[in-house]
Amino acid sequence: MDRNEGVRVKVPASTANLGPGFDTLGMALSLYSWVEMKKSEQTQFHLYGDQMKGIPKDKTNLLYRVAQLVFVEAGVSVPEVEISMYSEIPLTRGLGSSASAIIGGMTAANALIGSPLSNDKIFDMATSLEGHPDNVGASLFGGIITAIWDGTHADYIGIEPHEDLEVLVVIPEFQLSTSEARKVLPDHISRKDAVYNISRSSLLVAALSSGRFDLIGKAMSDRLHQPYRASLVPGMTSILEEAPNRGALGVALSGAGPTLLALVDRRDLRKRELESYLLDTMRSHGIQASARWLGPSREGAVICETVNSNSFMNMIKGEVEV
Length: 322
Ligand code: HSE
Prior knowledge:
Radius of gyration: 19 Å
Shape: globular
CATH topology of the largest domain: Ribosomal Protein S5, domain 2
CATH class of the largest domain: Alpha Beta
Strand content: 15-25%
Number of domains: 2
CATH architecture of the largest domain: 2-Layer Sandwich
Mean pLDDT: 95
Order of helices and strands: EEEHEHHHEEEHHHHHEEHEEH
Largest sheet: 7 strands, mixed
Distance between the termini: 26 Å
Bound molecules: L-homoserine
């Protein structure tokens, strides 16, 4: 590809924690953002779609800022860029929209200058910005990841999602920022609760790796963050208790919320019943929400190879209903 024509990157959304794996487990989801980046005489932005409303079109823009971090790290100067973005990922709902923007911006910027930085380096830089590796790791590498962060460096192992694993997300209309949802968490937890979470998170990784769908429900239980966040998401406590009896393999708050996420066996016959149950329960707590059936995204950030032949929005129209 002629990098002078610019680069395009497709990045998946993500869900973090999967219940007990607070700040450590993540899964890429089949909901995407696309970023195009070109060298330019003057910095300019073309932001498309409902999800981009209110996003700044100046050098405070997150994509611009993370691109500059990449250029500085690589030791090159690219002060002016033309950036286009289209996103299907709802903002501040717990589906990793900011992580996908960070990964999209960093991957595009790196590709624009001939990819001097490794994905591992981008993972470290992105995790440093987010403060935890779960969303950025899933968006960068795809699939399911289990990751650690020592404050400087992130390590991960990827888990191939089972082919029958499907994901139902119920996305409330209200927004909840990660910082608000972290403020309600206690600074200290008991040893009993720590053991509760370590054991379930470990079992969940093993169950997802080995296709033990029968253990996913028990393993997705959590005492580290969900009980404290329940007051921020009306209906959540009932749903966590009841959804496994309505066809969910397991259910969790997606990241910091407010989206709720159910893992489902694709072959289960109660999928419509589960969807209605989740939406009705939220509605009975005064929350309007929309449901989306997704899958795990096996691919993480991907550099598209067709920049010349098609305009940015024509390419998007070829992929989604815009
Ligand atoms: N692990 C993070 C949290 C994800 O639960 O706060 C938020 O993006």
